[in-house]
Structure formats: C-alpha cells, structure tokens
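Diadenylate cyclase
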Amino acid sequence: MNQFTEFLNTFHTFEWRDAIDILLMAYLIYQAIKLVRETRAAQLVKGIAVLLVFYAVAQAVPLRTMRFLTENVLSIGFIAMVVVFQPELRRALEQVGRSRIGKFQVFTSGLAEQDSQGKWEKLVHDLVEEAGVLSQEKIGALMVIERDTKLGEIIKTGTVIDSAPSPELIGNIFFPNSPLHDGAMIIRDGRLHAAGCFLPLSDNREISRELGTRHRAALGMSETSDAIVVVVSEETGLITLCRNGKLTRGVSLSRLREYLNAELAPSPESEPTNRLFDRRRGKNA
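Tokens:
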C-alpha cells in the first residue's frame, strides 16, 4: 500500500519538463537501437548483454572472482564501446550533420541560387550525355558528386583538374589507358574537381558477386558520405546509382537525368527522388 501511495505521489510532482525529458530519451534510445540493428554492432550488443547477466548473477550469489572481473570490464566499458563502435558513431554524427538542422542558409541570395541552379543543370546535362556514350561503348566510369560531406581526403589520392564540365572532358578522363581512367572522378560545386581518386571499398557481404571493384567502391563511398555516385559498368554497360549505402542498377538515361536534376538543381515542381531507391521497385528502376 505504501508503494502504491509513493507511485501516486510521483505523478503529483510530474511537470511538462519531465515529459520533454522522457520523450527526448525515448527518441535517443530508439535511434540507438535503430543504428545498432542496421550494423554489425548488434552482435557486440548481445555480448554486452550476456556480460551484464553474468554481473547480476555474480552480485546475487555472490561470486567474488566473477564479480571482480565483470566490475573491472564494465568500468572501462564506455571507452571500449567508443573504440569498437567508432565507424557506427562516425556515421551517426555525419547523418546528424546532413540533417535539415545543419542546412540553414540565412545569407544566401536569390541571384546566387539561380547561378548555382544553372551551374548544376549544365553539369547534369553533360554528365548524362556522356554517361550514355560510355554506356553504349561499355567504357567503365566512376563519378562521385560531392554533397555536404567534404571529400578532401579522397581528392588527395587523385589529381586535381578543377575544370568546367563538358562531355568531351569526361570521356577523355575515362578513355581506356588514359592516365586518369583507373579511379573515380570527384565533382565539387558543379565542376570536375579531381580524377583518378581511390575510394573506400564497402565491406557489405550482401553485394552480388556479379559486381566488381568499381561498384564496391561506389557503394563504400555512399556508405561513408552523402555523395551521389554514378557508375557505368565496363562489362554490361549498365548505369548504376549509389546513395546512402543503397545501390540501384540499370537506371535509364531519362531517369538518371530526372534524379540528378531533382537532387542537384531542384525546381518547385520536382518530385521526391527517394522512390528510386525503394527496394520494392526491384533492381531496375
């Protein structure tokens, strides 16, 4: 009866601040669980849960040696988790930085937006035009469009060209046996910024064995940044789009143009582009 009375008294002291506190903690816990479920960290979390069970048993029995070991392991558990979950934590922080909170542009003028849109529209036109040529001739290509996540470390692995886009230049970069064809081209601010760059390979074991190093590199780049990656297969000539760790093969030129225009040079009439990576649409979008 006393416990029930204490429980009721708790609600008498409940304020709106407590409700906000509970909602924020629930949201953070939900995001943490979602992050863990989508990565290999789920197995590590199971191991930590088993360790906590051992600790509870050692406390209840008690088992002195087991309690000593588990207490010392748990005392350094936070530092160990930061080290073990470093890739997942980095990816989560990058996602926060790419959210709408980090995209406020207070001092951007309308004229600057128009110039930027025209610059990106020209890039999309030239890229799609040359992608069609490369696809028809089955010439492999790997093109990375930088977004909010800066790719300075990747650019350092290649050669800076910093040139205005043109179909001819894109074709020359990926022409077989040319000095810069074996690598990725980085596009920054609507310009061809660097070529011959090396990308991190994805460690996703669910990737089809039909896909080679070029596609694995494209997927790895999209997993570690918000870049848009366009791949032309050297074996099949198929065009592939990679974004946020998702890969869509067999994209048509019209769909590629529509997607890139909506992402890079959006107009008020642009439709949402996330349908391209909807798994229910299958491999070919």
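The longest helix spans residues 110-137.
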